[in-house]
Amino acid sequence: MDNVKDKNLKNDSSGEQEVTPMEVAFYRWLHSLQWKNSEIPDGHACLTGKCGDTMEIFLKFNGECIKEAAYLTNGCISSKVCAALAAQMAQGKTPDEAVGITAQTILELLGDFPKGEEHCAFLAAETLQEALHNYMLKQSKRHSDKDTKA
């Protein structure tokens, strides 16, 4: 699927299945939220779940709002979907609003999600919260550094 095109892909000789436009759109959405920025993020966290999947969330702020939220994971498709949803839900929110993004929020948005994969939503939410915590610590340090210099 790495060579996804706008048209349906079908290659009878290779035995590949036809790729629907919805699958192409999903693939592009999923990969558009992966971290590609070379700048240092304002907030970042990297956690590994009990299942062994590692997830990273990167946050860039513009003033008090999250301008960009992205993820990386070495996990399964469920981890990718949950991380992508956490990142997408965080964009445009203040830290106080983003704190409200929980595993339950992610699972509600997903609807019918396999019970055995729900831990991915918990990992995504926890990683987002850690990235927010990292951002807040950096902000606190900046403010204390300014106070020290003044």
Distance between the termini: 56 Å
Helix content: 40-55%
- Widest sheet, order of strands: 1-2-3
Percent in strands = 15-25%
Give the count of helical stretches: 5
User: What is the CATH architecture descriptor of the largest domain?
Assistant: Alpha-Beta Complex
How would you sum up the major sheet? 3 strands, antiparallel
The average pLDDT value, as a whole number, equals 86
Order of helices and strands: HEEEHHHH
Care to count the β-strands? 3
- Low-pLDDT parts are 1-13
How many structural domains?
2
Q: The CATH topology of the largest domain, please?
A: Sufe protein. Chain: A
Instruction: Please give the radius of gyration in angstroms.
Output: 18 Å
Overall shape: elongated
Q: What would CATH call the class of the largest domain? A: Alpha Beta
* Class derived from helix and strand content: alpha+beta
